[in-house]
Design brief:
The chain has helices spanning 41-48, 76-81, 100-106, 114-127, 129-133, 144-157, 174-189, 201-207, 225-230, 232-238; strands spanning 3-12, 15-25, 30-34, 58-66, 69-70, 85-88, 162-166, 193-198, 210-215, 218-224. The chain is α/β, with parallel strands linked by helices. The protein has a domain at 1-80 and 197-240: Rossmann fold (3-Layer(aba) Sandwich). The radius of gyration is 17 Å and the shape is globular. Bound molecules: adenosine-5'-triphosphate (ATP). Keywords: Amino-acid transport, ATP-binding, Nucleotide-binding, Transport.
Length: 241
């Protein structure tokens, strides 16, 4: 198991946001965590990347194992640099006044493997040809969809081998959304493990191998993507009947 979240309880101040969730991600998988607004999806990602309180949640019970070792005492920068776990936040978290290329370059700041960095630049531009076309353009002038691509590209450039994506479909027109998911599928076929959080359950379950449904801080259903798509409760609540 690459990632194992075990009976995790977290709080913001006195308010409990996750009430004992458990899930796993195996190497090479695409796993999705689906749920409505406020279900606790981003909280889960911020707990794994160890964003410290007060912005980040505080763990009150449970454990997070990565490659079999507990990471609950690992500092956020070490999660990225040593464990090679990256978070691709919603696209608006890029540096708007820098070019596409500068944003990608900045994500490599802690790396010393220069040859591999060049390989990764090519990988990002092969996955997202639009980013190559716009590499000299200031990022604030990119469309919402292109900014999402840049966010994913930045995660790759950290040298990660496990990427967690916060709603990559957010704000994308349907065609761009499919482009994005095709790129993620391609990335996965190259060996990248992905944890995808999505409100758009339909597209997430189409692309993921397995999924979990998060509802107000608790996991209420899980299974392989096909099973979940055919689960009557999931259909009713998340797939529009
Ligand atoms: P969305 O899709 O709307 O982002 P989500 O599933 O990602 O939803 P979270 O953002 O994880 O949900 O929020 C879960 C709960 O925790 C919500 O009730 C939210 O108000 C609360 N919460 C999130 N971040 C904080 C914070 N920094 N401080 C206090 N409460 C927070």
């Amino acid at each position: 198991m690459l990632l194992e979240v075990k009976n995790l309880y977290v709080k913001y101040g006195n308010i409990e946001a996750l009430h004992g969730i458990s899930f796993t991600v195996d190497k090479g998988e695409i796993v999705t965590l689906i749920g409505a607004n406020g279900a606790g999806k981003t909280t889960t990602l911020h707990t794994i990347t160890r964003v410290p309180p007060p912005e980040g949640p505080k763990i009150t019970q449970g454990d997070i194992l990565y490659e079999g070792k507990s990471i609950i005492d690992t500092e956020a920068h070490k999660v990225v640099q040593d464990l090679k776990i990256a978070l691709s936040p919603e696209g608006r978290h890029i540096f708007g006044n820098l070019t596409v290329e500068e944003n990608l370059q900045l994500a490599t700041y802690a790396r010393k493997d220069n040859d591999q960095i060049q390989v990764d630049f090519k990988r990002v531009y092969d996955l997202f040809p639009r980013l190559f076309e716009r590499r000299k353009q200031r990022s604030e002038s990119l469309s919402g969809g292109e900014q999402q691509m840049l966010s994913v590209g930045r995660s790759l450039m950290t040298g990660a081998n496990f990427i967690m994506l916060d709603e990559p479909s957010m704000g994308l027109a349907p065609l761009l959304m499919y482009d994005m998911f095709r790129a993620l599928k391609e990335l996965n076929s190259q060996g990248m493990t992905l944890l995808l959080i999505e409100q758009n359950a339909r597209i997430a379950l189409q692309f993921a191998h397995r999924g979990y449904v998060l509802d107000t801080g608790a996991i209420v259903a899980s299974g392989n993507a096909k099973e979940l798509m055919n689960n009557p409760d999931v259909k009713k609540a998340y797939l529009g009947g």
